[in-house]
């Protein structure tokens, strides 16, 4: 029987969505990532509403990721399954400019035994070197 997507209680959902950090809650089923939840702060950081961002993430689109960072992000995703914690920096287009993000993943087990990945993000600012290359 296939594992089901984790169902948050109303209290859990409110806690994660209102956390004061940019946060994604992910679950891996049959080797495939599913973005279950995005905090208000994450949506604000990337300049998207929650529904659009979860749709984007769940269709495995790397369209906003800086092309040279796609492989690193895929490697990070694979590492998150193997290790209790991992992190990386990568560039993501936010409002037309690449920003360097620091992502930190921590694996947790819920009361019912479901494994989730809490990924917190920090925006380290726009990557001016990439912006400058476009003007030369």
Automatic annotation (TrEMBL):
Protein name as it appears in the record: PAS domain-containing protein
